[in-house]
Amino acid sequence: MAEGQKKSVWMYVGIGCASILLIVVIALVSLFFYGKKKMEQAGGPQAFATQMITMGGGVIALPALPEAEREEATKVLEELKSKAKNFTKEDLRELGKAMERLSEAQNSNADRKPSAEDAREFIANCKKISDRH
């Protein structure tokens, strides 16, 4: 190229697109390794899934319970998370179904809160699964 020639605008567009693509690839690889590390810390995929379900279920169920029952329910959820490494796929399926029922109860009410009875049912299902291990 001669010194006086202008550089094409498409070269800059190409460099910009390549830079964005590189940043996206780096972000995805980082996210993958972060998720893998968190899953290993949790004790494997089943334990990780259990922790996510109990955390979500706790956020939905605990506020629906009377104050006097919340401490016991919190203990049940903590015990469930601590035993999560030993869960089978069937345990996870059952826990997922319990979470689905709680979520459906939440969505069926106008105030977007499950009833205390729905929350008790979720906690009872969690306790039943936890007591098996």
Low-confidence stretches: none
Q: What percentage of the residues does DSSP assign to strands (E)?
A: under 5%
Helical residues, percent:
over 70%
Span between termini: 74 Å
Multimer state: single chain
What can you see in these coordinates?
The longest helix has 34 residues, at 9-42. This protein starts with 8 loop residues before the first helix and ends with a helix. Helix 2 (45-61) runs antiparallel to helix 3, helix 2 runs parallel beside helix 4 and helix 3 packs parallel to helix 5 (116-131). It is built from 5 helices and no strands. It has helices at 9-42, 45-61, 67-82, 89-108, 116-131. The protein folds into 2 domains: 7-42; 43-131.
Compact summary:
With 133 residues, the protein is an all-alpha fold. The protein is 77% helix and 0% strand.
Question: What key phrases describe this protein's structure?
Answer:
single chain; 133 residues; mainly alpha; 5 helices; 0% strand
Question: Which SSEs are present, and which pair or pack?
Answer:
Layout: H1 9-42, H2 45-61, H3 67-82, H4 89-108, H5 116-131
Helix pairs in contact: 1-2, 2-3, 2-4, 2-5, 3-5, 4-5
